[in-house]
């Protein structure tokens, strides 16, 4: 199954995708994670992308499209994959649509209030990338990852100014994809306002329909 998770920043795509990947046995491919890894390793791609990411702006289509096309060529994608954070523009959707057939797009929704709360209280593990929320997915020991013992940090783009920009960019560039995929008859909605467990079950249901 070739799945796309669609939804605003902070809706929990990363958390859902990690669980979905385990359940379905297909890889979780997150363009944001790939770009951040590149930035941490100071590759040219990463260094070029970082200023955009830190401000909450989109990285250039051509860069992201090339990166994702290469990733989807890998063997582990042959039985399907879960895309998280891609496509984010109509152009990206058109380009990837030329190469692969998407089976299902799950549109996860919640109010702006919930989204802002999740983003501003989010902490991420420096090493393994596990996502925490200071209230709902609390680490046992403050500032330390339960899974691997590394330090947690706040993403540069989870600071208030960049959050505002990301929501604006989402509305302008990415939201049109909802109708785009609805017209193709492959869109399913899922409520993302509940607990991480509830959200996962609803997305799983949407995928299975
Ligand atoms: P979010 O929590 O906003 O969904 P991501 O981790 O998916 O965060 O993405 C972080 C940043 O990486 C984005 O704000 C953008 O700068 C860049 N990025 C990720 N995916 C894409 C994409 N498909 N197209 C352009 N830029 C992207
Ligand atoms: Zn960790």
Q: Which secondary-structure class do the elements indicate?
A: alpha/beta
Unreliable runs: none
User: Please, what is the average pLDDT?
Assistant: 95
Number of helices: 9
The total count of strands amounts to 8
What is the helical fraction, as a range of percent? 40-55%
Largest sheet: 5 strands, parallel
Overall shape: globular
Hetero ligands: adenosine-5'-diphosphate, zinc ion
Straight-line distance between termini: 12 Å
User: In what order do the strands lie side by side in the largest sheet?
Assistant: 2-3-1-4-8
Strand content: 15-25%
- Following the backbone from N to C, one meets helices and strands in this order, namely EHEHHHEHEHEEEHHEH
Cα radius of gyration in angstroms: 16 Å
Observed structural traits:
209 residues; alpha/beta; five-stranded parallel β-sheet; three-stranded antiparallel β-sheet; 9 helices; 47% helix; 15% strand; globular; binds adenosine-5'-diphosphate; binds zinc ion
